UniProtKB/TrEMBL annotation:
Domain Sigma-54 factor interaction span(s) in chain numbering: 161-390
NCBIfam families: PRK15115.1 (NF011695)
Keywords for the protein's UniProt record, in alphabetical order: ATP-binding, DNA-binding, Nucleotide-binding, Phosphoprotein, Transcription, Transcription regulation, Two-component regulatory system
Keyword presence, DNA-binding: yes
PANTHER family per the UniProt record, alphabetical: TRANSCRIPTIONAL REGULATORY PROTEIN (PTHR32071), TRANSCRIPTIONAL REGULATORY PROTEIN GLRR (PTHR32071:SF116)
Organism: Billgrantia gudaonensis
Domain of life (superkingdom): Bacteria
GO biological process: phosphorelay signal transduction system; regulation of DNA-templated transcription
Name of the protein this chain belongs to: Two-component system, NtrC family, response regulator GlrR
Amino acid sequence: MDAARLHDSRHSRARGVDTTQAGSRRQGAHILLVDDDVSLLRLLGMRLESRGFRVTTAESGAEALRCLEAERPDLVLSDLRMDEMDGLALFQAIQREVPGLPVIILTAHGSIPDAVSATQQGVFGFLTKPVDRDELFAAIDDALAHAPSGSEGDIAWRADIITRSPEMERVLEQARMVATSDVSVLVTGPSGSGKELLARAIHHASPRADKPFVAINCGALPEQLLESELFGHAKGAFTGAVSEHRGLFQAADGGTLFLDEIGDMPLPLQVKLLRALQERQIRPLGSTASVPVNVRILSATHRDLGQAMQQGEFREDLFYRLNVVNLKLPPLKDRAEDVPLLARHLVAQAASRHKPFVKGFSSEALNLLATSAWPGNVRQLVNVVEQCVALTTSPMIPEALVAQALAAEDSALPTFNDARAGFERSYLVKVLKITEGNVTQAARIAGRNRTDFYKLLARHELEPSAFKPQR
């Protein structure tokens, strides 16, 4: 492909873009402009600003990456030939940090090999200096029109997720890209980090957005009840089944079914779920007839499913069916910059419900919130804010009240799953100490066979040899 044909292929798409839509995307769009020639940087920046763009400039690739950490632009325009990090190296770094962010490369050394190499790597456009004004703006319109999220503020799909963390923005960018397809997505991350919120956002960004989003916690129900909830049951299928019941697969037909804590699903049900996904039909309990279903599956877990597969607690074939794309949510402690944003949002919500006179947190209180460990993640932050609003008597919540709420959270009653896990670990430690690391004796005391006992030890990362007497 020669440079002229490549250039024309890019801009034949631009000519196909509706000009009204392109204009709305262009209005106020944020462009990161990168060039090591300061005079050209200033000149091109002025030209872009005269057309209504908001421009951030960087004189090197390294400076451009620092700008990306502070704020995500809608488009990057970069010179190709720069010292230390050239335009293609900058593009590759951008793709690692913000996948899908469109990049247009500018160069005074235009050549067919450069153009072909750039576009093969995924660069959106390649323009030769001196850049023709009309060609430049046509390329910008085209890039903004094809970007995952246009500058007109297409953020309704993720409106419930409040962040300015680059790590969270990368996850959201990936979520936006996978939302348009029908692939299964597994969301992983610690408890309380917002896995269901992300699943809902994916649904809202998908072609299924006008159909139901149905969620179920697979670890919250006993096996027979969970099977009935998922697949439904016929009248008389079991004691108490006095009428026919449509399951959640049918309730979500055409939309999205979110399976939370999928790692806690019993093995027999994993087999039935796999069959339903493979055959795209379900059979209600007690029925002989299969029902076709059309659902997109999103699932989530805080467990290490790789370890669960090794222990025989999760089916490998189901894992690969669910984990076509894996989105990993960071813990709140890794996005400390989000804590003040979230706290202000949450206090406004809580105040509107309970105490309208409450306006926010004092600066000292916000500092304490931002520097806390947050083992319970966003869910714990919600609880702390609710407690502070409930107990405050002043418009600005003081630091002392935040400290009190954090202390109360630390001593709060744990969830059933956390309490069970804590008891299991302390029990295993006790029997290993009693038997001095002898697994056979410890398993006998626990009333488990050796295989099950070893699985329990692996789940809690306990090594029997650590409990043997030192010689």
